[in-house]
Amino acid sequence: MADFHRFGAALALTLSLIALPWAAVALVVRRDPGRFFVANLAWVVLALGVTAIAGLTFVLGGKGPKDPLHLVYGALVTAAWPAAGLVASGRSPRERLVVMTVAAVVVLVLVARLFQTGG
């Protein structure tokens, strides 16, 4: 199960590393990143959700992370993309890209912290 948890985290990190330059380039060239970008974000959210569920099985089984901040970072990163989607909804395409670019940076920072504070 620990390997599954690590794999999910690595997958989420990899997909987020794809999302950041994608959003940034779209922002600079003033183009809509397209539906594949949104699909990539959906996969990131799915990977984070499955990873969070796997991590919760550890916590419920009495084996929590070394650093309790891991749980805080886990909750924040799991909520980051959905929260960005809520903030971006109803905004102009340019504003949506700004929100998604900032969210990509936040997710990368949080995932990096998760790896540092993990079990």
Can you describe this structure?
It is a single chain. The chain is mainly α and 119 residues long. It has one domain. The protein is built from 4 helices and no strands. The protein is elongated. The mean pLDDT is 86.
Number of strands: 0
The gyration radius over C-alpha positions equals 15 Å
The percent range for helix content is over 70%
The ordered H/E elements are: HHHH
Question: Keywords, please?
Answer:
0% strand, mainly alpha, 4 helices
Summarize the structure.
This protein has 119 residues and is mainly α. The chain has 4 helices and no strands.
Topology summary:
Elements: H1 2-29, H2 35-60, H3 69-88, H4 93-117
